[in-house]
Amino acid sequence: QVQLVESGGGLVQAGGSLRLSCAASGSTFSITSMAWSRQAPGNQREVVATIGSGGNTNYPDSVRGRFTISRDNAKNTIYLQMDSLKPEDTAVYYCRVMAGGRLYWGQGTQVTVSS
Description:
This protein is mainly beta. It is built from no helices and eleven strands. The strands form two sheets. Strands 2, 4, 5, 6, 9, 10 and 11 form a seven-stranded mixed beta sheet that branches. A four-stranded antiparallel beta sheet has the order 1-3-8-7, with no helix packed on it.
């Protein structure tokens, strides 16, 4: 079992920045890939950043160049640095990890970008 706790959400003006954190505990030795997803009201959940065990990253076009995912293996923590935020980035952001063949999700943290 893996437990995930996110932090760092909040309200920011368009053009601003936020940094999200996701701390993992439990069977962290089995974690392979980690990712951030988001879900806006009325929309499906979408992946906005992934990072593999080797540090390789991937982003959709909607956030590439503005969002940066990173991981600190010693702290079992991943981060999402979000710059040049836009109102359309408003959503609940979820941390997600793959461990032992299972997906685990955090509780989510709200990010609101005002225009």
